[in-house]
Amino acid sequence: MEKYIDGYLLAVPKANLETYRKMAQQAQAVWLEYGALDYRECVADDIDKEGFGSFSAAAGAREGETVVFAWITYASKADRDQINAKVMSDPRLAESCCEGVFDFKRMCWGGFTTLVGN
């Protein structure tokens, strides 16, 4: 069975990166507890090369912000739907919500089927 991926692209103020990391660690624990196969949060290091599209532009990053690229892997879309329902009702995430850490409305999010992978 092909895996299902939720992908995220967002801009985080550099001044809030440590707070974001702590929030992401809590989220990782919750998603994995409910059955996600993998949870990754990655901060930009080597992006925006000349002649290619810009991650910074795609994320809407502004002065003083960095780009975070993240994904969560599930066994299937049905598993994703069940896991996310549990995660969204978990009080641990409500306590560490993203409000004030980054602009949630500027975050890109989507579900993806696997084209190539194992």
From TrEMBL:
Pfam families: DUF1428. SUPFAM superfamilies: Dimeric alpha+beta barrel. This is RNA signal recognition particle 4.5S RNA. It comes from Achromobacter insolitus. The gene is ybaA.
